[in-house]
Design goal:
Blueprint (H helix, E strand, L loop, with lengths): L2 E2 L6 E2 L2 E4 L13 H13 L4 E3 L8 H10 L7 E6 L6 H14 L5 E6 L13 H13 L3 E7 L3 H8 L6 E3 L13 H8 L2 E4 L32 H21 L3 H9 L5 E6 L3 H8 L8 H15 L14
Parallel strand pairs: 3-4, 3-10, 4-5, 5-6, 6-7, 7-8, 8-9, 9-10
Antiparallel strand pairs: 1-2
Helix pairs in contact: 1-2, 1-9, 3-4, 7-10
């Protein structure tokens, strides 16, 4: 089941538990205890890799991860991220120390640059400076591997000049596939693991949202391009075509979408959960065996949505 993370000895599960929602910021109706229960249920169901970030609720998500998992630290892989506003040399070292404290651990398995320098009006820091700090943290044993998130192929290649990058974390799902064009072949060639976030298109691929769904005030998904206008209608049409395949596999739409995603080259999938049941259901996707014909059929249905999208890699309509 487990897969090697890039060139490292670290083994990650095909499904990772994502904890953006645990930080609460940008999410509505998320409670601490059910999320802690969800992490424990995920672990019990065979998911051993957990992804968080200092930016999720200003470190709150990392604290909840520690509450849920500190008793099984030696059996889990923890991945976290340093935000775009902390990419100067000294800032990276400090951010890592803070994450270590919040996670109640003396090492982070995978430490990732969350967004490239310059995004969200952050300082434009040369990647060489950031990588110098990350390489030092790795030599000190505070981190075991370095990853990047939301990097283009060019940005990834540039970072690789200054040290080993073992993973890329892009937005990637059946309805959002920009990474396949240039970046995936590069990752395969360089043995960089692809860890897909928004693996269920923020819930769209669960089929739970009807054609006239309105999100509550403060829900980040209201800005997601996939939930808007004609794209949203195309997604509903695609889901209708996916339902018979899910029935054939005796699985949910979400499990089908995840099984398709983790069958792509070098790809594992991050999935969040608000409660224990969702976490257990997500883990079951690791057991689904799709044939080549299944994958081709699902692929074609997904293209009904993705072929109509523009080239902008950001999934939300907020200024990066």
């Amino acid at each position: 089941m487990a897969r090697r993370l890039g060139n490292t000895e670290i083994e990650i599960t095909p499904i990772l538990f994502g904890t953006w929602q645990a930080g609460k910021s940008g999410w509505v109706g998320v409670e601490d205890q059910p999320v802690i229960d969800a992490m424990k249920a995920a672990f019990d169901a065979g998911i051993t890799t957990f992804d968080t970030a200092e930016a999720y609720g200003d470190g709150y998500s990392e604290e909840l991860v520690a509450k849920a998992l500190s008793g099984v630290r030696d059996k889990v892989v923890l991945a976290t991220k340093v935000f775009a506003n902390h990419l100067h040399y000294q800032q990276v070292l400090e951010a890592c120390e803070n994450s270590l404290k919040r996670l109640q651990t003396d090492y982070i398995d995978l430490y990732q640059i969350h967004w490239p320098a310059g995004t969200f009006n952050s300082d434009v820091v040369p990647i060489e400076e950031t990588m110098k700090a990350l390489n030092e943290l790795k030599q000190q044993g505070k981190i075991r591997a370095i990853g990047v998130s939301n990097f283009s192929r060019e940005q990834l290649a540039e970072a690789m000049q200054f040290g080993r990058i073992d993973s890329l974390q892009p937005p990637y799902n059946l309805f959002w596939r920009g990474v396949e064009q240039e970046t995936m072949p590069h990752c395969v060639e360089q043995n960089v693991a692809i860890i897909a976030y928004s693996a269920l298109a923020q819930g769209l691929l669960t089929g739970r949202f009807g054609s006239d769904h309105q999100f509550e005030e403060g829900d980040i998904r209201a800005k997601n391009k996939l939930f808007k206008g004609e794209t949203y209608q195309r997604a509903q049409d695609a889901l209708a075509k996916l339902r018979p395949i899910a029935e054939r596999q005796q699985c949910t739409l979400a499990q089908l979408a995840l099984a398709w995603l983790i069958a792509q080259p070098q790809t594992s999938a991050i999935v969040g959960a608000r409660n224990a049941d969702q976490a257990t259901q997500n883990a079951k996707a690791m057991e689904i065996q799709l044939t080549k014909d299944d994958l081709t059929e699902i692929d074609a249905i997904g293209r009904g949505v993705t072929d109509q999208l523009d080239d902008n890699p950001v999934m939300w309509e907020f200024a990066a």
